[in-house]
Amino acid sequence: MPDMNQAAQAAKSTAQAAAGEIKSAAQQAKGDMSPVAEDLRKMVEHLREDMADLRRDMGDVAGKWQERGAKAASEAGATLKQRASEQAENLKRAWEVSRDRTKEGVERGEQCIHDHPWTSIAIALGVGLVIGKLLDRR
Length: 138
Prior knowledge:
This protein is mostly helical.
């Protein structure tokens, strides 16, 4: 999550710049720590601590979102792989059933022709004549 890190870096640099300005203003007072200057120094120190906490928290949030995204992607990939495997298995079974039924049909047809050769020839002749007549009309 580079956007969060960039935002944290920008906030940190802004805070550091403000702290530098306040520090230089305090140094111009040449060690004269008036109560206002002391309050400013405390506020700058508090701001630095808050910025460090914010940066750490933003890093934690980014890390957790990254983990969640990786976990979701992993789960989706596993689900997709499982479904693809199931579909491949279903397709394989359908192919085997189709192949077996076709083989059985061919064997029954061959057996029928073998058992009744003259009937088979007569049927083939009749079918050929019907197809010939249908094509002859065109």
